[in-house]
Write a structure and sequence with these properties.
- By secondary structure, the protein is α/β, with parallel strands linked by helices.
- The chain has 2 domains: 98 residues; 175 residues, Spore Coat Polysaccharide Biosynthesis Protein SpsA, Chain A, CATH 3.90.550.
- The protein contains 8 helices and 6 strands, in the order αααβαβαβαβαββα.
- Helix 4 links the parallel strand 1 and strand 2.
Length: 298
């Protein structure tokens, strides 16, 4: 009995040592991965360890084989990641190079700014920023499209006189919805308001482009410079739907330190964005009934 106990204890210590050794070698491998160089194969010690089995029992051999397979999988993933990184670097490099060769049209036309609001008298903060930072009232006329007829908010907007154009959306009729959808009524009203406001900008006031904001946004000092500089991209690149100044991840430490770098995205950034008349002619007739920022008919 003592011999059997000693045998099992000795086997257990051997197994623990093998696992510890593998973990150490795996840590060494991971700590030396270089994503800018060629991938390295798994350390030969791991292969020799798994191949020899060191006289281990079948159970230990199976464990070593599984560990070896995991190492091979990690090595393969490293190769794939390196390939992806190189592709991204090449695309960014080519994009920056080609951007210097593109001839962009000029001058930039008058671009309207429409602020969508309802019942927030604090819209004053946003309007003050727009008026402060816009380089020219003629180049960037400001329109405020107000829904719901909130009197205090209307007085704040009217106090700006001819610095802004106050558009009042008077269709406040209830939207008939099934009981299960009643909780979404606000989204239906927002979609209806947006469609009316954009129709006014393009059809009544005959603008060729518009920047869309909302009454609770803060803008940066280069807000108008950004849109004036990127407007030509909407003209030359027909695959672009809009230009947006909004980034959900736009915080220090999360963005690239490259002011000249723009990102394409297939996620609709629905705050602080610009579109042209041509896109409105396409989207206006099939404007969604709800969830403007994420729901588009095919």
């Amino acid at each position: 009995m003592k011999r059997k106990v000693g045998y099992f204890v000795g086997s257990g210590i051997t197994l623990i040592w093998i696992i510890f050794f593998y973990q150490y070698m795996l840590f060494q491998q991971r700590s030396h991965l270089d994503f800018e160089g060629d991938s390295e194969e798994a350390p030969p010690q791991i292969h020799r360890l798994a191949e020899s089995g060191i006289g281990a029992s079948p159970k230990v051999s199976r464990q070593l084989a599984a560990l070896r397979k995991e190492v091979e999988t990690l090595t393969s993933q490293n190769d794939q990641l390196q390939h992806y990184v190189h592709r991204v670097q090449n695309v960014i490099g080519e994009g920056r190079l080609n951007s210097t060769l593109t001839i962009l049209p000029s001058p930039v036309p008058v671009i309207a700014v429409v602020v969508f609001g309802c019942n927030r008298p604090t819209i004053r903060r946003h309007l003050d920023q727009l008026i402060k930072y816009r380089p020219s009232a003629a180049s960037f006329p400001i329109y405020v499209s107000q829904d719901c007829g909130h009197e205090e908010t209307a007085r704040v907007i009217s106090s700006y006189g001819d610095q802004v154009t106050h558009m009042k959306h008077t269709n406040n009729t209830p939207i008939i919805l099934p009981k299960k959808d009643k909780k979404f009524e606000g989204y239906y009203k927002i979609a209806r308001h947006y469609k009316w406001g954009l129709s006014q900008i393009f059809d009544k006031y005959n603008h060729s482009a518009v920047i869309i904001t909302e009454d609770d946004l803060d803008i940066s000092p280069d807000f108008f410079e950004y849109f004036a500089g990127t407007y030509p991209l909407l003209v030359v690149d027909k695959s672009l739907w809009c230009i947006s100044a909004w980034n959900d991840n736009g915080k220090a430490g999360l963005i690239a330190n490259a002011p000249e770098l723009l990102y394409r995205t297939d996620f609709f950034p629905g705050l602080g964005w610009m579109l042209r008349r041509e896109l409105w002619a396409e989207l206006g007739p099939k404007w969604p009934d709800k969830f403007v920022s994420c729901s588009w008919p095919g």
